[in-house]
Amino acid sequence: xxxxxxxxxxxPSAIGPYSLAVAAEGKFLFVSGMTPMDPxxxxxxKGPVAEQTRVVLENLRKVVEGAGGRLADVxxxxxxxxxxxxxxxxxxxxxxxxxxRGDYPARTTVGAQLLNMQVEIECVVRLxx
Length: 129
What we know:
The chain is an alpha+beta fold. Helices cover 25% and strands 29% of the residues.
């Protein structure tokens, strides 16, 4: 059995044919790539990588919590950077450490061609932890 989330309170809404997150068997939550879009205005944040990362991770947090999870239970993260440079990685990483502390989730960071943004992040959450 699975439960699909296309919107969460105060968070982003799906803007295409996808779910923000899907809970599988009540054990894992698979969260789609979050973007630096402001859920209140629908506008994409055009700031530097650190600023965009903060918006992305706030959106991710809202989706995870809105679907019944916690950031502390994230087991895997994938970070996509439009320009994978040491500077951008360091900026993203500094903000990332504000949201994930202690026992960090497994993570992969890759360079990717992104549309109108510098960073996108997706994750998997263990719901019954």
